[in-house]
Each structure stands twice: as structure tokens, then as C-alpha cells.
Amino acid sequence: MANLFQTLTNTVKHWYIPLIFGILFLICGFYVFSVPLATYVTLSIFFSVSFLFSGITEIFFSLQNNKSLQGWGWFLVSGLLTTAIGIYLIANPQISMAVLPFVVGFTLLFRSFQLLGFAFDLKSMKIMSWGNVALASAGGIIFSLLLIFNPIFTGISLVTLTGVSFIFMGIASIMLALDLRKVKKIPGKISQELRDRIKSIQDEIDDVKK
């Protein structure tokens, strides 16, 4: 009921921010494929800027939607983590090729799990396309794990794993943004009378819990 009440009475703010993330991650993914393996370390600078930007904007997005989205805290944690990784990469531009895949892999793995959680939130809101976000997030999880444990999978290059991981993350973020846009439109379709009734029911439930 609490989730339904939030969905019907609050409008999602800045739904397009995950869309920006998605486009940014897609650019990262395709850019990785254009960089030779010998210059893989130079990608740390590119990753640092993209992570720092996405982290700061994600923190902003989470704080703006702390009353609209049930899982806004995950966006906040993800934003803080991504910002920290961005700062770390800026402070260590010459990070070794042995370390960079783990840093990027764990960051993308966390974000993939975060998006998977939001997919199930969308399911609870009766958004029919939640499965697309879940599938793209699952793909991100799989390739992030392959990136982290790359020494075991020696037949797959780091460039391929990194690029595909970013692409799956980008697709999942774009799908999430489009679904949040649908959620944003829900309050406008609900009459004020129905909102008042739902709020009254929610108040009664809160009183019973006390």
C-alpha cells in the first residue's frame, strides 16, 4: 500500500537522468571497442570522468526523488560509490591493467544489481516492461562477473568484456528511464478524490501500526 500510495501521489522528478546515464554508458561501451588493448590503461581517465559525472548526478536524482521512489536510497548509495570510484581513478591515472578491470567490474556489478532491484520495483507498480530492464540488468551482472574473474576466462579479451558490460548497463538504464517516464504520468491520471481516499486509507493503516 505504501508503494502504491507513493506512486499515485508523487511525481518522479528528473526521470531523464537515468537516460543520460544510459547514453553515457553506451558511449563508453562503444568507445572501449575502438581502443587497442595496448592502450587499455588510458581508459582510466575516460572512466574517471564518466563515473564522476554519473555519480554526482545520481546523488542529485536520489535526493530529488526521496519521496517519489521507494528505492531511492539505492540510487544514493550507487551515486556515492560511483563518485568515489571516479575520484579514485582521477587520483590514480596510471592504474595498472591488472587492477582496472576489477575496479570497473565491481562498479558495474553493483549498478547492475541496483537496476535489477528497480526492475522488481517497476513490477510492483504494474509496469509491464519491467522484464526488459531485468534482462538487461542480468546481462550486465553476467559480463561484470566475467570481467572480474577474467583470468579464468582467458579466451575472452578484457576489451570485449568491458565494452559489453557497459553496453548492457546502458541499455538497462535507458529502459529504466523510459519506465520512470511512465510512472511520472500516473499521478496526473488520478483524480484528487481518489488520492484523498487512498491517503485516508494509508493514515488508518499507519494508526493501526502504532
UniProtKB/TrEMBL annotation:
The keyword Transmembrane applies. GO terms for cellular component: plasma membrane. This is HdeD family acid-resistance protein. Keywords: Membrane, Transmembrane, Transmembrane helix. The keyword Membrane applies. Pfam families: DUF308. The chain crosses the membrane at residues 15-34, 40-61, 73-91, 97-120, 127-149, 155-178.
